[in-house]
Design brief:
This protein is an all-alpha fold and 352 residues long. The protein has 3 domains: 1-88, no CATH class; 91-244, Alpha Horseshoe (Serine Threonine Protein Phosphatase 5, Tetratricopeptide repeat); 248-350, Serine Threonine Protein Phosphatase 5, Tetratricopeptide repeat (Alpha Horseshoe), CATH 1.25.40.20. The protein has 19 helices and 2 strands. It has a two-stranded antiparallel ribbon. α1 (22-38) crosses α2 and α16 (292-302) runs antiparallel to α17. Keywords: ANK repeat, Repeat. InterPro entries: Ankyrin_rpt, Ankyrin_rpt-contain_sf.
């Protein structure tokens, strides 16, 4: 993809009525996709890639069946048959236009749509992810053409939706649903707002509007998610908004060396009064309490916290230990996130 914002609405049919059956909408999208591929549209090619549908040979037209599969998968259906099983569901064309406006950062269009139809602020997509427009701001777990870029005015878009009554803590059905599908959790694991430089400000805007900074289960899941996803500024923004930093791993990932030191006693070992860390969030992967120093080292390395990494290395950690989500060692996490200084430091410690 080039650096320009993708053209909004490439796969959005022009339909005069405010409501249309989902099967009809999808059929129109199939033809839009086929036409866009002929034109070499970058968004259309990305939709094919996301759906694992090979593009046609040069000079050929994309077949109907491959286009159907791509459109179905773009909406997170298993296949075209699965999509057609919902063919009589209703698509609100105003919601689709609003979703395009959110993606493009078109405040004037979004405001006009909300003025005419206030219910759009809390309405959900009819497609399997069931996201609201606030979720769409996170650019995560929706149609591919709507999560290729975040607009630079995403914070203004979010604030408009929140002012109009959007629920800052609503969940959706992306990635299996659950407490990790609030806009806040989707946001802090999304690369597009981070690349656009708006992720931290979006975190602050959501929290200012009442989003629960420690998660809807009060288990620290937003901060866990930001740390695991490697989004350092988002993690720092959460802490700045009052997220609890109540375990060694959080303190290490945030680079708070003084707080990290407080978890160790005069003998250099972990204080026995510290409650063992059992798992990531209320429902996430289990942690081995005896490996908390190694986990802390991994996430400190992922977030390039040199002072913390050097301190934790004095505790003789096992550098072969992996964390339970992506199975990365400290060295692997540093490499993945491009933290060359951490890679050099850990490589010297690991030896040949």
């Amino acid at each position: 993809m080039t650096g320009a914002m993708p053209t909004p609405g490439v796969l959005t049919p022009s339909f005069p009525a405010p409501r249309v059956e989902l099967g009809r909408w999808l059929a129109l999208q199939v033809e839009l996709l086929r036409g866009a591929v002929v034109r070499g549209d970058e968004v259309a090619i990305e939709v094919l890639r996301f759906a694992d549908v090979p593009p046609p040979a040069q000079g050929d037209r994309l077949g109907v069946e491959p286009a159907r599969l791509a459109i179905a998968k773009d909406h997170w259906y298993a296949d075209w048959t699965d999509a057609l099983a919902h063919g009589h569901d209703i698509v609100d064309t105003r919601f689709e236009a609003a979703a395009d406006a959110v993606h493009a950062g078109d405040l004037d269009t979004l405001r006009r749509l909300l003025d005419a139809q206030p219910a759009l602020a809390t309405m959900r997509s009819p497609f399997p992810h069931r996201q609201t427009l606030v979720h769409h701001v996170a650019a995560n777990g929706i149609e591919r053409e709507r999560q290729l870029r975040s607009p630079t005015n995403a914070v203004d878009v979010l604030r408009l939706l929140l002012e109009r009554g959007a629920d800052s803590d609503a969940t959706c059905e992306s990635y299996g649903a659950g407490s990790g599908t609030t806009a806040l959790c989707l946001l802090v694991s999304s690369v597009h707002p981070a690349v656009a430089g708006v992720q931290a400000a979006l975190v602050e805007a959501l929290c200012d509007a009442g989003a629960r900074v420690d998660g809807i289960d009060d288990d620290g899941l937003p901060l866990w998610t930001a740390i695991l996803s490697g989004h350092t500024k988002a993690a720092e923004a959460l802490a700045g908004c009052g997220a609890r930093v109540d375990n060694l791993c959080f303190a290490a990932a945030l680079g708070d060396l003084d707080e990290v030191r407080r978890y160790f006693g005069a003998d250099g070992g972990l204080r026995t009064t510290v409650a063992p860390l059992q798992r990531i969030g209320a429902h996430g992967p289990e942690l081995v309490p005896a490996l908390v120093v190694e986990y802390a080292l991994i996430w400190a390395a992922a977030h390039a916290r040199r002072d913390v990494v050097e301190f934790l290395l004095t505790k003789d950690p096992d550098l072969r230990v992996t964390e339970p989500c992506f199975h990365a060692t400290a060295l692997g996490a540093a490499r993945y996130h491009g933290n060359d200084e951490m890679v050099a430091l850990l490589s010297r410690r690991a030896g040949p």
